[in-house]
Amino acid sequence: MNLKDKVAIVTGGSSGIGGAIASRYAKEGANIVIAARSLDSLKAKKEELKELGAEVEAVQADVSKEEHVKRIKEKTLERFGKIDILVNAAGMTMVAPSEQLTLENWNKCMDVNSTGTFLMCREVGQEMIDTKRGGKIINITSIVAHAGIAKRAAYAASKGAVRQLTETLALEWGPYNINVNAISPGYVSTPIFQDLVRKGIHNPDLLEARIPLGRLAQVEDIAGPALFLASSESDYVTGVILKVDGGWLVNGHLNIH
């Protein structure tokens, strides 16, 4: 699944799932634009991707801000002249009993996860339509978009919105040869996940006991499906929400942390 000479934007691309996807794309020959809020992590990831042979542009940006999103697109076009692939991996979690969830935290979660994904899709989608090149858009949602998990009201609502946005855009943009799909990861061992473990919110042993494949996902487990959805192998795949959860959702026992 060669991505040679393709240009991919990966938001949240400096670490975690986005970082793994950016690395996988770089290994397959793509040129990469990574966007994230942390300048230090961007600098480190840029050097890593360059060592993999990619041409890389790093943009410090908050995808919940429209002017930042426009800057990501502009920087990409200035450097590479086109956009072939967009991966919306920027996101945040939010854990709180619903009756204690503040409006500020609700809005923060929705702004980053839902609005940020919409803005990136809108800007890049318009570019793909205008140039008549088509392209691939991959959104990162979550298993909480498919089933209720306690204390995740804001996170679930934001990721459910991404799921529905993906299907709607696939319908609208199919005639322009733009494939829009999403990946719904299960529990992935990312820095955010490990922070929740330290806070006592997640118990890895309990989680693994409910996963049919018997282990948490590593970020590379998500990068593989993201490569498929970015490649020509998925040219007839659109509007799909690909669950990459080790079988968590088919187990039926979701009401644990």
UniProtKB/TrEMBL annotation:
Record flagged with keyword Transferase: no
GO molecular function: oxidoreductase activity, acting on the CH-OH group of donors, NAD or NADP as acceptor
Pfam family, one: adh_short_C2
Keywords, sorted A to Z: Coiled coil, Oxidoreductase
GO BP of this protein: bile acid metabolic process
PROSITE patterns in UniProt: ADH_SHORT
Sections of the chain in a coiled coil: 32-62
SUPFAM superfamilies reported for this sequence: NAD(P)-binding Rossmann-fold domains
Domain spans labelled Ketoreductase: 6-222
Similarity comment: Belongs to the short-chain dehydrogenases/reductases (SDR) family.
Protein name in UniProt: Short-chain dehydrogenase
Source organism: Bacillus taeanensis
Lineage, uppermost ranks: Bacteria, Bacillati, Bacillota, Bacilli, Bacillales
